[in-house]
């Protein structure tokens, strides 16, 4: 398995990347910011993506986005092909894209929003902290990406203050990135379930 910074030779994988992201979102039934093949191609061309290949077979992907005039960086669109899950590949890809982001944008705050428990665990281990949305970029272009998510209604009605996603942030200005508490799966699971209960209740009632 090789996990590398994507270059023009990887453009051929843009379609399978998009298809795998879309299929997984459908299966999970959760929200996701939709990305076009053209968008993925641009990320690859600009050296803002990491790809994992098993020989010539696509295994995983993640890309970098910059927001707020480069003050914020997000490592988004993480996907591992179903055939390669549960082997630590997402951890490896995220580590690579994180280290690359730190090198390329050393002063930027690195953040993500996710409903995925695996991603929360990976981010936490990399030194991210869970934060409120007010700590994240206020770049409208970032938040408008949420419009294609099926939970966008929640974000709108909370005036972009909260949603089912949890915001996580790595602040390079903070000297110490070791956590006071070790990762507690139960805490993140509970938080997710509380948010789902609160925010999706209204939806259920409507139906
Ligand atoms: C989420 C995803 C990227 C994980 O890929 P993966 O290669 O299987 O992940 P890893 O093997 O590196 O696992 C990372 C950690 O998360 C845990 N994990 C994996 N899947 C999990 C799940 N569904 N729920 C809770 N924890 C999970 C693993 O146990 C592991 O923890 P450990 O370090 O204590 O062993 C993959 O399932 C995927 O592509 N899903 C669809 C797309 C998606 O959800 N993307 C994230 C959008 S924010």
From TrEMBL:
Pfam annotation, one family: Acetyltransf_1
Cleaved signal peptide residues: none
UniProt keyword list: Transferase
SUPFAM superfamilies: Acyl-CoA N-acyltransferases (Nat) (SSF55729)
Any one GO MF annotation of this record: acyltransferase activity, transferring groups other than amino-acyl groups
UniProt entry tagged with the keyword DNA-binding: no
Segments forming domain N-acetyltransferase: 3-149
Protein name: N-acetyltransferase GCN5
Organism annotation: Zhouia amylolytica AD3
Taxonomic lineage from the root: Bacteria, Pseudomonadati, Bacteroidota, Flavobacteriia, Flavobacteriales
